[in-house]
Design goal:
about 260 residues, mainly beta, 12-stranded antiparallel β-sheet
Amino acid sequence: GFNPQQLPATLQVNKQHFSTIGAEGELAKNYKDVQNDFIYALKLKGYIFNDAYQAKESNIVLSGFLNETINQFYAGLSGSLDLSTQQDSLYNYNNSLIRLNPYLKFQGDSYRIDAGINIVDQFGFSSAFYIFPAATAELQVIPKYLRLFVEAKGDVNKTSLRDFSVINPFLGQDMPIKNSVDQLDISAGLKGTLALGLGFKVSIFRNTVKNMPLFVSNFDFSKGYNRFTVIYDGGRSRVSGFNGELDFKASEDLDIFGRAEFKNY
């Protein structure tokens, strides 16, 4: 937009459009509720994205997992190979990730514990190696009605031109590329059943993020340019908040769901 009281001498009114073509397929072992079962899955997906100008992005992800069950004990490994290229008029980047998530799970009548780590290797135009926690725990407080849960995790969030354009379609050219890092996301809350067919979940959370992307105006009215760009908070951003969910299963054909969330940055 522009100030209607101070019309710019020139104004770029270029039309924008976005195109995405993608596909995915999955190979998995059909799960059967049998003791000591071994299950696996392998998934391949990808897309090609471009806009009306010179922005292009291609992505292909190969992911899968292996899991062995022994009584109430589970051991497994999940992982993915996430390959991307991102280009615009001023750059052409390879921005890729390898993830490995070994884990152990313990489950009983009144508890569940998932203990693991998330190993991420970032390579391409920027290289880095990370090890994050990947752990959750649940405890049954009131049987069939109330469960307490806590979670701690971390990950690398790949910057995506396609995702940026979905959030803000009024972006200019040559968006800076820098992956953000969820250094530690922690949450705790309660979930369960309030009445027949009425479920709920409430939680509080606090996330620590490095290189958080933020949209800012990038106006230059001397050239009639009214677009947005992206900057990154290089410090440790704190995002804390609360969310609540209600899910009412009125019948087999009607399910009413609502969610509210408050965030403070």
